[in-house]
Specification:
double-stranded RNA binding, 10-stranded mixed β-sheet, tRNA threonylcarbamoyl adenosine modification protein, Sua5/YciO/YrdC/YwlC family, alpha/beta, DHBP synthase, SUA5_domain, single chain
Length: about 200
C-alpha cells in the first residue's frame, strides 16, 4: 500500500522529503505534485524502478519517453549534447516553468535512455520536486498521470490518485489539488523552438 505524505509547498518538512529520498534510493516509485499536474517519478539510475514505471504506463521501457526532472539547468550537460548559447538563453528565460524542452541526448545518458536520440527536460516551478532533486543529488524520471475520465484528461485530486495507484507506487505526496493542464512541449533540437504540444506554458 502506498504511504501518503502530506507535504505542502509553503513549508515542506525536511523529514518527509528525506523519507521520499530514501524511497527513491531504494527503488521506490512516487507520485508528486508539480507546477502543472501530478506525476509519477522514480530514480533515473534505477533500471528496475524505470521498468516498473513503464509497466504502469503499459509500454516497453525502450519505447517510453519519460521526462527528466531537474531543479536547475546545471544537469543539462549530463544528459544533452552541447547546446548553443542562444538555446541556453531561451531555456534560462523559460525555466523554472511549465515546459518540457526536447533536446539532443548525449551518449552518457542513464541506461534506461540508451538509444534515445532526444530527451525531454523539465524544471518545474514548484518547491517540492525541486527539493527532491536537490536532496537526491540528481534528476528523477517522470511521466504524467492520466485520468480515465473522458472530459478531465489529468487527475487533480491526490486522494483519488492515491486510491487508484495504491498498489503500484510506494509514496503519494499530497500537496492539495493539482492542475489539470500539462506542460507545454517545445522541440529545440533544430536550434529554433518548435511547438509540439500547447499546455500551461506560454511561449
Amino acid at each position: 500500500m502506498a504511504k501518503i505524505l502530506r507535504i505542502y509547498p509553503e513549508n515542506p518538512q525536511e523529514n518527509l522529503i528525506n523519507e521520499v529520498i530514501k524511497c527513491l534510493n531504494n527503488g521506490g516509485l512516487i507520485i508528486y505534485p508539480s507546477d502543472t499536474i501530478y506525476a509519477l517519478g522514480c530514480n533515473i539510475f534505477d533500471i528496475k524502478a524505470m521498468e516498473k514505471l513503464a509497466q504502469i504506463k503499459k509500454m516497453k521501457l525502450e519505447k517510453a519517453q519519460f521526462s527528466i526532472i531537474c531543479n536547475d539547468l546545471s544537469h543539462l550537460s549530463d544528459f544533452t549534447r552541447p547546446i548553443d548559447t542562444s538555446v541556453f538563453r531561451f531555456l534560462k528565460s523559460h525555466l523554472p516553468g511549465p515546459f518540457t524542452f526536447i533536446l539532443d541526448a548525449n551518449k552518457s545518458v542513464p541506461l534506461a535512455y540508451k538509444g534515445h536520440k532526444t530527451i525531454g527536460i523539465r524544471v518545474p516551478d514548484h518547491p517540492i520536486p525541486q527539493l527532491i532533486v536537490e536532496k537526491l543529488g540528481h534528476p528523477i524520471a517522470s511521466t504524467s498521470i492520466k485520468d480515465d475520465d473522458e472530459i478531465i484528461e489529468y487527475s487533480t485530486d491526490p486522494e483519488l490518485i492515491a486510491e487508484k495507484y495504491d498498489h503500484l507506487v510506494d509514496i503519494v505526496i499530497d500537496s492539495g489539488y493539482g492542475d489539470n493542464v500539462a506542460s507545454t512541449i517545445v522541440d529545440l533540437t533544430s536550434g529554433e523552438p518548435e511547438m509540439i504540444r500547447q499546455g500551461k506554458g506560454i511561449i
